[in-house]
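Quick one:
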Amino acid sequence: MPFFIDDQKRALDHLHRNEPQHSDLVGFLSTTLDRFVSERLAPRAAHRDDVEEFDEEAFQALGATGYMALSIDEEMGGLGAAYSYSVAGLESLAKADAGFALAVAIHGTTADGINCFGSEALRQRYVPKLASGELLGCFCLTEPDSGSDAKGMRTSYRRDGDSFVLTGTKYWITNAPSAGVFFVVARNEDGGRISTFAVERGWEGTFEIQPIKDKMGVRGSNTGMLVFDGYRVPEAHLVGDEGRGFSYAMQMLNGGRVTIGAWATGVAQGAFEKLVRYASERQLFGKRLADLDNTKRELSEMLIGIHAGRALSYAAALDKSLGLDIARDAAVAKVAASEAAVFCGERAIELAGGYGYARESRIERHLRDALLARIGEGANELLKIMVIPRAIEQQFEAEGTPELW
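Output:
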């Protein structure tokens, strides 16, 4: 089975079938990208999981295919395609190697932030290199004492002449050990305004990166802690307007939730396909495992969750490209797809029995990877008690409900 499957094509057809570039873009995903995934990424995915290694050469090779330029503005060296094509490609990457795909997703969030909010000079400096894979980006929001409560960040900045001076710690930062540009969110030292900066290594002051190892899942990605102490950032590297950084970060998180939705769908699809293969070969009670009613029901429920996550994620991605408010729909897609991924990973292990529990099966990795989807880009608990309810209330206040009928 290919890594870009017909269900992905049909989901994109529903959104884009009458658009001029559609056939070419689907052709790219089903040939060039699929070939990269099947030949370069999938064969070494289990090894990278074992040794906890991010493949920087594969990342650069992926950039050379043109994938990371899909949704970048044409003036910045991209194709200007709808974001839904990018997330469809990310699903294929995640099915093969969720750790590597997570690195690509966070890189994309960084590129999107600089492209959307950065000055023309910053866009010209970074975006073409991010689009080509020459430069790896990372989004630096989470801290040791602030994850879901992003406003609780303690990393601070102050102005000093023609520079900003950063001090503080960022934690659980994907791509940190390998990145060339860091999208850093920090609070003014007076505790008020939050701003964002495009940061590089090698400037004046202390900027240390400490790798974080021994993760349960997504082990094919690099994770690290950043420590700034009096680190001087040139004034021109302020992203957007001072004091508007929290708004920028939240908009980036909305896009990130869409990517996590597609990423989780890929993880779920991987577990599903491996279980289908196993169930078609395994004999139990004189029948194939696939022919037992319980297996049929479980596979059906898995497929329902996968289709829902894919449809929600691709649709929210299109809305992002159209400039619509996606806060609610991104959260819904992320929650639905991540819960489906965990369900598929868990049920695939359960149905495959002891074999599914062993690394040899290549099944158990999908559950370990899927669990991150519940946490990353806003924990599901937070989204269900704050973000989605806020959207419900706003819609009710704006539209009300009809008279009882």
